[in-house]
Amino acid sequence: MRRVHIIGAGMAGLACAVRLARAGVAVRVYEAAPQAGGRCRSLYDSRLERTIDNGNHLLLAANQNALAYLDEIGARDRLTAPPDARFPFTDVRSGARWTVCPSPGRIPWWVFARSRRVKDAGAWAHLRGLRLAWTGQDDTVADALYRPGDPVWERLWTPITESILNTEPQAASARLMRTVMMETFAKGGQECRPLVALSSLADTFVDPALAVLRAHGAEVHTKQRLRRFEGEPDAVTQLHFPGGTAPVERGDHVVLATPPPVAEQLIPWLTVPRETRPIVNAHIRLPHRARLPEGIPFLGLVGGTAQWLFLREDVASITVSAANELVNRPSEEIAQMVWTDTAHALSLDERWQPAMRVIKERRATIAQTPETLRQRPGMQGPVSNLLLAGDWTDTGLPATIESAVTSGQRAAEEILRRLSA
């Protein structure tokens, strides 16, 4: 039986494995870490005495491939979402609050309703986002949208650019941001509806996938770091691990679904994006369960250090994207900074010192600049039976869960096409 060897059990590797296993293909997955999931993982924290996620991830209704993956593993019901598109924000300096509520349909009627748009900003300031449609290949989001003193820039475009592209808007690709806007805001509120894991990332995206793989006879091997490939001029024939080798038979395929530094180490002549951006997450054990307005489990923060706050029972999880300077500060200092913002946002006593955990991902994603995007490789690897997958490959999407899943599914579909030829 022809087999597919998948190197990496992050979201790209799992999406590829699930699609192939459900189609009856023999699959073997190798993961260097002790657990599957990549950056989409959960862990029990003894300091907080709670299960926390490595970081916060939010899907949108427009993320059709990620939702298809959840359907394949029977986990779509493990997401929670408001009935319509709502993105609440607060300014931690002034206490001002507003909720961005895109209206249904392609015509953005919502910008003409004061209650649905950024506070202290008019309709035409919001419509400046249309300038993304006419951006050039080398333009940044700031080139297209920045205007001095524009509240929409600080209160909408900056936070969503940094959260979606994990790159400061002065460097982030306007073309890539345009792609996102065309699939979400331009199609109306129904495509912008936010979706959040009910319990944990592992419970939603990882554990159900592993159960599906086991049910279909797929093998998943953790603590197996690939050391090198061995092959002929146009095919991989051996996979070398610390504990031995795995043969790649004629007709088998290999999918390399690792982060770009690992891919480059295994294939030195492969061009990969090298510039990255960090993300800092902080998890706070609150004195009691907290609730945000309208029951939405997240809140955008501007004017401070914290950017997004996610609530799950009595744990507040903070995310700071494009954290180029913050990531180098001591964790204790970061904890105090984000606790100050959290206390203001949730109306808690700032003098109280909660249990906290700071997690730094120094190379969370590729830097999504115009230059870096030109370095994203396609799906086909340097030899015929080797394919590439990962959010950093050229999916045409930002380096998100949707991009990772899309890359894995595309690799699976290409292998299925070849096997049926």
UniProtKB/TrEMBL annotation:
Q: Name one GO molecular function term.
A: oxidoreductase activity
Q: Which residues form the Amine oxidase domain?
A: 11-416
Could you tell me the superkingdom of the organism this chain comes from?
Bacteria
**Which SUPFAM superfamilies does the protein's record reference?**
FAD/NAD(P)-binding domain (SSF51905)
Pfam families linked to this entry:
Amino_oxidase
The protein's name:
Squalene-associated FAD-dependent desaturase
Which species is the source of this protein?
Answer: Limimonas halophila
